[in-house]
Amino acid sequence: VDEFRARKDLIMSLIRDIPTLHCPEPKGAFYLFPAYDHKMSSEDMAAYLLDKAHVAVTPGAAFGPSGEGHFRISYACSREDIKKGMIRIKEALEKL
After folding, report:
1. Which of 61, 75, 66 is nearest to 5 (CA)?
2. What is the DSSP track for 4-72?
3. What pTM did the predictor assign?
4. At 60, phi and psi to the nearest 5?
5. What is the model's pLDDT at position 29?
6. Average of pLDDT values for 46-67?
7. Would you say the C-alpha torsion 24, 43, 56, 80 has a positive or negative sign?
8. Distance (Å, rounded) from C-alpha 57 to C-alpha 81?
9. d(CA 64, CA 14)
10. Nearest-angstrom CA–CA distance, 70 and 35
11. Is residue 2 within a helix (H) or strand (E), and if so which, with residue range?
């Protein structure tokens, strides 16, 4: 439990450093569901992040129409992988 809390705190701090992402604090599992400010579908965003950042996320639209403009990302990986992935996401989003 302590390790997942540390991972959640880490990924939340890294998301807060990305001005175009907005994410409430998760209450349950080990997923985040950030909204983004970019004008693209969640499917296009997921494909973009996979192609440019080499990070797999789930399009928000997979969770219904209200999920559009979001993506789901897991923090059930090492803290090092969280750091690397979030740096790559930040760099990719800065290019949009």
Report:
1. 75
2. HHHHHHHHHHHHHT-TTEE-PPP-SSSEE--EE-SSS-HHHHHHHIIIII----EEGGGG-GGGTTBEE
3. 0.94
4. -60, -30
5. 86
6. 98
7. negative
8. 14
9. 26
10. 4
11. helix 2-16
Looking at domain 2-94, what is its CATH homologous superfamily? Answer: Aspartate Aminotransferase, domain 1 (3.90.1150.10)
pLDDT of residue 62: 98
Instruction: Report whether 42 contacts 61 (CB < 8 A).
Output: yes
What is the residue type of 3?
A: E
Band the pLDDT of 12: cuts 50, 70, 90: very high
CB 70 within 8 A of CB 60: yes
The pLDDT of residue 27 is above 90 = no
Residue spans per domain, the chain: 2-94
Tell me the C-alpha distance between 14 and 44, whole Å. Answer: 22
